[in-house]
Each structure stands twice: as C-alpha cells, then as structure tokens.
Amino acid sequence: MTKPSAAKLFSAIDIITLVYSAWVLLYMSLGISRVRDAEVQIPIYLSIVAAILLLAWWHKKLDALRYPRLHAALKLVRSLYPVLLFGHFFTSGYSFNRIIFADWLDPFFMNIDHSIWGYLPSLEWGLRYNHWIISELFHFAYFCYYPMIVGLPLYLYLKNPKGFAELFFNLCFSFYLCYFIFSLIPVIGGRYIPEAMELTQVYRAGPFTHIMVFIYRHSHHLGGAFPSSHVAIAIVLTIGALRHVRRLGYLFVVISFFLALATVYCHYHWFIDAVFGVFTGIGAYYLANFTNRKLQGAL
Q1: CA distance 259 to 140
Q2: pTM of the entire structure?
Q3: How far apart are CA 103 and CA 20, in angstroms?
Q4: CA-CA-CA-CA torsion sign (294, 97, 77, 157)
Q5: CB contact at 8 A, 22 and 45
Q6: Among 26, 161, 154, 163, which Cα is nearest to 96's?
Q7: pLDDT tens across 29-67, in order?
Q8: Cis before residue 4, ω within 30 degrees of 0?
Q9: How far apart are CA 105 and CA 98, in angstroms?
C-alpha cells in the first residue's frame, strides 16, 4: 500500500495557513534581535504549525466508516480553524512588525495625506463634523464590519456550501496577505497622533460610538494600519455577496463606502490606508480565486 502524498494530506486552507506561519517563523528568526517577546511568539507559531500537521494526519488516518461523527467533526474543524487564529495573527504582528523598519512609518503616510488634502483627515474630519448623529453614522458603518464578516459566511454555509468554501478561502487568503504586509510596513494609523488616540478612547455620542470606544479601549495592539484590513475585507465580502447573494451585495456596497470613510473619520487610519485597502481587497479576492484553483488542481 502506498503512502498518501503530502498534497493529499492538506487542504488549500492548510497550505496557505502553513505558508503564512512559516513566513512568520522565518522572518522572526532572521530578525530575532528586533522581535519583542520572541520567546513567546516562536513557540506559539511552532505549535500552530504542529497542530495543523497533526490535524491533517489524524483526519487522513481516521476511518470515516468506523468513526463517522468524529471524522465529520474533524472535517468541520479543519474547514474553520483559521477563525481561531485571525486574532492572534493580527495582535502578534506587534512583536515583529519593526524588524526591517525600527521606527513607525506614520510620518511618511501623514505627509501623503497632507499633500492630498492640505490637512490630516484622520484628525480633522472627526473634529470638524462631530455632531453625535454623524459620529453614530460612521461608527455604525465601522461596526458593520463585524456582522458582515459573520453573517455572509454563515448564510452561505447554510444555503450555498460551495459559495461558502470559496468565500472562506478568499477571506483567509486576504487576511494573510494583509498580515504579511503589516509585518513589513509598521504603521499605527490615525491613532499615531496623541489627540486622535485620546478621541478613540473617550465615551461620547451614542451606542455605536460607545461600542467602538469600548473595543479600542481594550485592544492595545499597534500597527497593522496599511492597508486598512477592515476596508480590504469589507471589499472581499462585498464582491462575494455580489457573486452569491446579489441583493445583499448592493447593500454591502453602500456599507463598505461609508466604512471606508469611517476608518478615517473615526481616527483609526490614514486616508491613504483606506484607499489602498480598496485596491488590496479587489486584488486579494481575484488573486485568492486564482490561488485556490491552482491548489485545488494540485490537490
């Protein structure tokens, strides 16, 4: 009996997650002197790689006829486990996002914004148009990112499994692409300005402004602003919705437009972050489709 090939052991999700984890491990190893908490992050990423390999091996060895429920449970875990990793992948970037550039690159991005507008929209928009209704509108738009990223995949999981598999791969690919860029380009975004940082942590206006202040009061990560992953992922979700649930897609177009503006108005990103978030989202979606087809063909 021949051994199963390595390609058959792994899913497309496994492969891109392993590639990203391997990149981080290599990157940290090469720049170890500039990595914060390397003694914590390296074992965590090694454990993630080991867990993926173990799950793949166990699932392949398990007899589906003898253990149908366990086999189905492992299949579900292997389909969705990146959701458990996104948060750590994002926050851990603070440990190694200043390997190449020791200092934050925000002054460079501030100059770009200033050259476009003659002022800094990341600070001025929220101060000039600070009526509580306007604040609520933009914080609501920004908050919509969370129900969008849960709602559309859940709907497709229940109604269109093939569409779900495509969208989930594209989301994973897009997240990993953003995290890869974040590891190379250390940018805080609008919160680099002390006054803007304070504004993101002061309770005011209505419920949605309060919700976002609560989130940012309890989220202490820095970096990961260029390009805006919120905008990029919103664009990926919008294209996916237009492809699979067209009427919902039209709603997502409107939400994504206001969400992109909200990233600047709410002081989270530079204007140029949002612009490149749009291009990153569009590019990531179609590059993910191409990559998925190639991997599926290999598998």
Answers
A1: 8
A2: 0.92
A3: 24
A4: negative
A5: no
A6: 26
A7: 999 999 999 999 999 999 999 999 999 998 888 876 677
A8: no
A9: 10
